[in-house]
Amino acid sequence: MYLHIVKRPKKQRRAVCGSADVIRKGQAIREIRSAPIGEKPVFLVLHLHRLYCTSCSSLRLEPLEIADPKKHWAKALGRYIVNLLHYTTVEDVARHPGMSWNTVKQIHLQALQKKYSRRKLRHLKYLGVDEIAVRMGHSWLTAVSGREAREKLDRLFALNQPLHTAYLLKEELRSLWSCSSRAQAEPALDNRLKNACAGGVRQLKKFARAIAAHRSGILNYFDHPFTTGIVEGINNKIKPLKRQAYGFRDMEYFSLRIYALHESRYALIG
Q1: What is the DSSP letter of 122?
Q2: Among 14, 111, 168, 237, whose Cα sits 20 to 30 Å from the Cα of 177?
Q3: Helix axis angle, 182-198 to 161-175, nearest 10°
Q4: Which of 1-15, 136-150, 163-177 has the lowest mean pLDDT?
Q5: What are phi and psi of 183, to 5 degrees?
Q6: What is the DSSP track for 68-116?
Q7: Helix/strand/coil for 31
């Protein structure tokens, strides 16, 4: 569907000075894509006039108000695309109106840049920090946990005294989080590390040294009782976001998609 648009002479003004004292001198036709009507693609054929301003003596093409400069899509199509991306993927959105993946991505990128170009950090009080691999070649640590019957655990302890010692230390460290203040937690942590070193198990001594290296960070929890749980949750959303796009070559676009994760309504499966 092609819709031809011509601005009324009384509405024609210069973009720079805003003057309505203009004279038409020539014409240019520009075709841009707009939001579809049903399943029909819609194109707007804009009849733009070159306007000579009698006030500032300049000759320029009249301003384009329904689309951004040098873009071949209308603002209405941009809003339509961004709204669809709240519910599904870039690939699916591109397939729906028959557009290229790159065009949909560029529309979304522009909208995200505009929205997140000035992020308000004035009231920011705490930061959670974590890492996530975005390219191949990184090593991963896989943690596997399970639960047995206490009877089997006791038999293991009887056969392996170092294992028993490690288990007791683990339970002691877990009880550290029940401390109500830093003043209470600090001596408790130091006592548990001392017990680990005195247990005679080489691996426990190494573990105690590693914990001691992070002593300050651990104790900071009791001044600011926040964990990285929220960050881990965000990472769990970032990973399928990366998988559903088969990776991101444009890191700026990837970063902006992360800022907009809270707006996504669809479940990412990967």
Answers
A1: T
A2: 237
A3: 170
A4: 136-150
A5: -60, -30
A6: -TT-SB-HHHHHHHHHHTTTS-HHHHHHTTT--HHHHHHHHHHHHHHHH
A7: strand
Q: Which of 114, 40, 34 is nearest to 66 (CA)?
A: 34
Tokens (6 digits) for 238: 């970032």
CA angle (167 as vertex; 164, 171 as ends), nearest 5: 140
Mean pLDDT of 167-188: 86
**Strand ranges in the chain using DSSP code E only, listed in sequence order:** 2-6, 22-37, 40-53, 59-61
- Name the residue among 91, 98, 86, 6 with its Cα closest to residue 46: 6
Task: Give the global pTM.
Answer: 0.48
Query: How many other CB atoms are there within 10 angstroms of residue 22's CB atom?
Result: 22
Q: 145 is written with which tokens? A: 């946990």
CA 21/CA 60 separation, integer angstroms: 13
By mean pLDDT, which of 101-105, 126-130, 216-220, 252-256 is the weakest?
126-130
Taking CA atoms, 213 is separated from 216, 218, 220, 239, in Å, by 8, 10, 13, 30
Q: Which tens digits make up the pLDDT trace of 12-57?
A: 655 555 566 677 777 888 899 999 988 889 999 988 877 777 777 6
